[in-house]
Design a protein that fits this description.
The chain is mainly α and 155 residues long. The chain is 82% helix and 3% strand. It holds the Pfam family DUF2231.
């Protein structure tokens, strides 16, 4: 996929990740810490994580196509491309946490759960993966904006 309605596909697809990754991460943390939220949103969180995993290679592929069309590969553009490769790891991490939440939910429906080691482990994992995914998307996006628009990092 290279263009959508005449626009570079990467430009449009990346906005999906910019919205879905923080949303999914926040919902995962909420579900991990609050059983009532887990009962309501666990399947939505799993569907969002699957969507992110599907959207990531499409976005990276469209970015590689766009990168190939650039005549000059400035260092900031190279950094953005390198950071863009990180996204698959964040997508897999979000999916694994979502699966863990679904398993946790399934176990709770079989036997009312107390605060178990699984609950604590999933909560810690959700926070760590969620924060790292959001920070990662911000870093990737910042270098992309800097490469395209010449935004200078403050400091």
């Amino acid at each position: 996929m290279t263009t959508i309605f005449g626009l570079p596909a990467h430009v449009l697809l990346v906005h999906g990740l910019v919205v879905l990754v923080p949303l999914t991460a926040a919902l995962q943390v909420l579900c991990a810490l609050w059983p009532a939220a887990r009962r309501r949103f666990v399947w939505l969180v799993l569907a969002l994580a699957v969507g992110i995993l599907a959207l990531t290679p499409l976005t990276v592929s469209a970015g590689e196509w766009l990168y190939g069309r650039e005549s000059e590969h400035r260092p900031i553009l190279q950094l953005h491309a390198a950071r863009g490769e990180w996204m698959i790891y964040f997508a897999v991490g979000l999916l694994l946490v979502s699966v863990a939440l679904a398993v946790q939910h399934w176990l709770e429906t079989r036997k009312p759960a107390k605060r178990t080691a699984l609950n604590v482990a999933v909560a810690i994992l959700a926070v760590l993966v969620g924060v790292s995914a959001v920070v990662g998307v911000a870093l990737i996006g910042h270098t992309g904006a800097e490469a395209k628009w010449g935004i200078i990092a403050a400091g």
